[in-house]
Write a structure and sequence with these properties.
This is 3-hydroxyisobutyryl-CoA hydrolase. By secondary structure, the chain is of the alpha/beta class. Helix content is 47%, strand content 11%.
């Protein structure tokens, strides 16, 4: 095993370990890593000596901060198409994780954002710690939540997912559990011990039982106390009405949320709200991923994506110049374009998977 490989694989007992290994880049995913993880899952699925898979991130900072946004930015600036190929394989991996027939354990320690959510939150056993910071931050870079994120947020209790999607807010362990993005809280200092004990499991059922032995009450989150105004405000039919309700609710935290939302890409906000509402009706993860592939491919070609990444990640001036600059400038027809069929470029996961939940 070459420790410079971006994905490390080894087996402890009957558990196959997958470690994302780009710690200096916060384990950001690139195409080669997606291919490597996909191959590892295929091998583990057909290896009778393996009863479970465990995915972790190298280093102390997090599981995965998302896709390799700098390379996607350069591809977009150059008018390329490599990023679309990357998403095609990444979304297929997300679907494979969700349907993996053996326990898939994700240690969501530290930063888990964007693509990091995709390789963890679709798993069977999702563990968070006191260091976890989980987010789908796409509206802040002129993009739209993907990797199945619109499904995950769309089915969160009430309108919590809408709040997280539009504000791009990161949440800790307690709120991740509340929103259904994670299953168990384990203190970070016990992760090594947990991993060692998982190696001693002889059955798939023993994997869940072992994690439960280490699970503890999570630190209190913040969202539960705000459910009333979140559900009331974000249940509106449009982003404009959501912002208006937040602004006029008389709740300081709601007013702050409105101010945060108005710093995001107006186009991304409107497409994201529509994507969430549509995801709730689509049913299967595969159908949602098909939809997200459409929105991602379209966002990739729009000016807000390059401008958002420039402002947040490249130049870091935090002053994006969105186009259009205001919500009123984004029409229903503009939003509809993001959901238009792609013809022979469709992802086609729903059709390939057959009947689903």
């Amino acid at each position: 095993m070459n420790h410079e490989d971006p994905v490390l694989l080894h087996t402890e007992g009957r558990v196959r370990h997958i470690t994302l290994n780009r710690p200096r880049a916060l384990n950001a995913l690139n195409h080669a890593m997606v291919a490597r993880v996909t191959e590892a899952l295929a091998d583990a699925e057909h290896d009778d000596s393996v009863i479970a898979v465990l995915i972790t991130g190298a280093g102390e900072r997090g599981l995965c901060a998302g896709g390799d946004i700098r390379s996607i930015y350069e591809d977009a600036r150059a008018g390329g198409s490599e990023s679309m190929d990357f998403w095609r394989d990444e979304y297929r991996l997300n679907a494979r994780i969700a349907r993996f027939p053996k326990p898939y354990v994700a240690i969501m320690d530290g930063i888990v954002m964007g693509g990091g959510v995709g390789v963890s939150a679709h798993g069977d056993i999702r563990v968070v710690t006191e260091r976890s910071r989980i987010a789908m931050p796409e509206t802040g870079i002129g993009f739209v939540p993907d990797v199945g994120g619109t499904r995950l947020l769309g089915v969160a209790p009430g309108e919590l997912g809408t709040h997280l999607a539009l504000t791009a807010e990161a949440v800790g362990a307690g709120d991740a559990l509340l929103c259904g993005l994670a299953d168990h809280f384990v203190p970070s200092q016990r992760l090594a011990e947990l991993t060692a004990d998982l190696a001693g499991c002889g059955t798939a059922a023993g994997i869940e039982e072992t994690v439960l032995r280490y699970a503890a009450p999570a630190p209190d989150g913040e969202l539960a106390a705000h459910r009333e105004w979140i559900d009331a405000c974000y249940g509106a039919a449009s982003v404009e009405e959501i912002v208006d309700r937040l602004d006029n609710s008389g709740v300081p935290a709601a007013k702050q949320a409105a101010e945060t939302i108005l710093t995001k890409s107006p186009t991304s906000l409107k497409v994201t709200l529509s994507a969430l509402r549509r995801a709730r009706r689509l049913g299967s993860l595969e159908a949602v991923l098909d939809q997200e592939y459409r929105t991602s491919c379209t966002a990739f070609t729009r000016p807000d994506f390059v401008e958002g990444v420039r402002a947040q990640i490249i130049d870091k001036d935090r002053d994006p110049r969105w186009s259009p600059a205001a919500l009123a400038g984004v029409t229903d027809a503009d939003v509809a374009l993001f959901f238009a069929p792609l013809g022979d470029r469709e992802l086609g996961l729903a059709a390939a998977s057959g009947p689903t939940d």
